[in-house]
Every structure is written in C-alpha cells, then in structure tokens.
Write a structure and sequence with these properties.
CATH architecture: Orthogonal Bundle
Largest sheet: 2 strands, antiparallel
CATH topology: MetI-like fold
Strand content: under 5%
Strand order of the largest sheet: 1-2
Distance between the termini: 51 Å
Number of strands: 2
CATH class: Mainly Alpha
Structural class: mainly alpha
Radius of gyration: 24 Å
Number of helices: 12
CATH superfamily: MetI-like
Number of domains: 1
Length: 290
Amino acid sequence: MAQSPNSEARAGLSLVSPTALYSILLLAAPLATVLIYSVLTDGQSRIEWTFTLANYVEVWTGKVYQAIMLRSLTVSMLVTLVTVVIAFPIAYFVSFHVTPSRKSLWLFLITIPFWTSYLIRVFLWKVILGYNGVVNSGLLAVGIIDEPLQWINYNVGALVMTLAHAYAPFAILPIFVALEKIDRSLLEAGQDLGESKLRTFWRVTLPLAMPGVIAATLIVFIPTIGDYVTPDLIGGGKLPMIANMIEVKMLKQNDKAIGSAIAVSAMLIVAIISLIFLFMNRRFLRGNAG
C-alpha cells in the first residue's frame, strides 16, 4: 500500500529535524544573539534594550576599526594567495605524477599536521622565528649574522607564513579532489590537436580544477580573517586582527554592543568578498567555455 504524501513528509521531517535543531541551537541562535546585541545600546554594566545604529556608525567610521579591518583583510588575502599557490602544485603532483597505489600514502602524509592541535603548530612557529629561535640560532651558528634578527618575528610576513602552513592541508585536499575528477582523455585530446602542455593546462586543466580552487580559497580566506591565536602569539599582540578586537570589546571592556557590531560587519565584508570572487570565477569559466 502506497504511503500518502503527508506520511512521507512527516517521515522526512523526522529525519531532518534532529540536524535542523542542532544547527539552530549551535549556529542560528548565537548568530541571532550577536545581531540583536549589535543594534542595542550598551550601558555601563548591562545591555539596554534601546534600538540604535550608533554601534555600526562607530565601527565603520572609527579609524582604529578601519585600520584593523584593513589589516585583517590584507593578511587573509595574502595567506589565501600564498596557500593556494603552494597547494596547487602539490595537489597537481599527487594527482598526475604519483601512482594510484601511492596516492593514499601521500594524502596520509599531507594530513599529518592535523595530528597536533592548531595551538601547538602556531606556538612552534613562534619558537622557530623567535629571537632565540631555530632560525636565528642556525644563522648565528654558521656565521651569517652576528646578532639575532628581530624583524623575522612580530610582523605581517610571520603571520602569513604561519597561517599558510596551518591551512595548507585544507587547500591541498579540495584541489586534489577536483583534479582527480578531470577526464585524462580531455588532456590527451588537447595535445593530439597540437596544443602545448602549458596551453592545455591553462585551457583545460585549470578551468576544470576551478571548483577545487574556489573551495580552497574560501576554506582558507574565511577562517583566517577571524583568526585569533596566530596574531596573539606570532604577532606578539602588536598586530591585532579583527578577532582580537572583538575579544577585547566583548570580554575585557564588556562592550558587547560594539563587539557584536564589529563581528557582524566582518561577516558582511567576508560574505561580499566571497560573492564577488564567485561571480568573477563564474565569468572566468564562461569565458573559457566560450
């Protein structure tokens, strides 16, 4: 006997509802709380339930907030660029030049950094780049420098290097998956038609791998702009990013309204940039298809 549409709908709802409830409790509810706080007035010791947009005006016009947001965007974009540029050749090598029987071993090696916590990996970079760290000690030992270098730590370059190392596996894996899905006969057909390997890569391989590149870009860009640990350890507190400012406002200064406004503003900026990138990528794919 066939089931009625209502019974099928109820069965589907019963399967989806636990996941939906979990998402609402852990994602939607905190996000709604932040949105509400961002349009309320912050009193001396408590939130006043008075609607206002002054929080956003202060965040968008304040020089300090603008500078920190610009630094966060710059660092995140640099990390994304460096990570994807490094990840693509590695993923390409594993996909096209490693025998199928050894690919699982290479992927296993790529995931080894996940065996340790993110905090430990970041702290190790502080040890490597520190005043008395591995780099300075090695350079002193071979006589290249006479005193430890101070500029290799507590700067944007150190932040980019640390974050690129931390997020490299997240970029390698989606690019590898996209490359694995490419039909090798298409590449052979391009070369049979007289295309060079470089031109075949540009016109066939790269466009077909773009879904993986997009995924890698977003996976790296979105979390790095809100990274809190790395600026605090590697930056030594001298290069705060947007997450550090939110922590100061929300916890140390107990200014939840401004902190929420900063968080919402950062989410909007990230969403807009991500949509722009997706639109430009779609135009790129259509152009190559044409």
